[in-house]
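cron nightly-structures :: item 1 of 1
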Amino acid sequence: MNVELKEIGGFKFLESEGRGGTLLLLHGLFGALSNFEGIIKHFADKYNVVVPLLPIFELPIRRVSVTGLVDHVSQFVAFKGYDKVNLLGNSLGGHIALLYALSEPEKIQSIILTGSSGLFESAMGTGFPKRGDYEFIKRKTEGTFYDPKVATKELVDEVFDIVNDRNKAIRIVATAKSAVRHNLGDKLHQVKAPTLLVWGKDDQITPSFVGEKFNELIENSRLILMDKCGHAPMMEYPGIFNQHLADFLQEVSIVGRTPKENS
């Protein structure tokens, strides 16, 4: 990626400063900037692609929650002075995107969700792994994808380091529990922005039925189910994902809405 990380006004973020509208990307609980590498490369010139680093490990412990992260996104958008944003979230990032869209709908041009939490999610199973259990973390990280080879050693090491840092592990658990408490099933009918849902048919964390439920509850939404794909379609099939995203963003920019359609 050629876009450099900036730190301004207490915010850490990437920004491509492309000539089009703003495409704001929100990463998941174990997510990293590299998760969006394919999107950034493809859209950096066409859109102002922005990736704020969510302060999951920096917030005061009393504010570690999905609402604390939504507040951070709200403050960031206000600080940058963005008018309307196309808001894309993966996993926990999708959950935060929806909560932000519900709180500040006037700021939303469109929403793109992929493997989003907010209705149902299963990340680490019934318990948090023992420290030092590298093989467990490796299996869980590989299980994020249909093709386990997508889980590079670098990615597995990153997750392993988080789990083995006591401070970070506590924050991961607190954020995950907060996400479960903030179920959006009774609020999604309030989402009016055009919404694209891209789900892997083999997602083991937010299974495909979750995408179908989002599609049912969000009135102006379109669902695309991808074969042989897990929890992060933008990483497993960046070319196909980017084409769906480009078509959607083009349609939104032309007509301002998208018809309800399943693919």
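cron nightly-structures :: done
The chain has one domain: 5-262.
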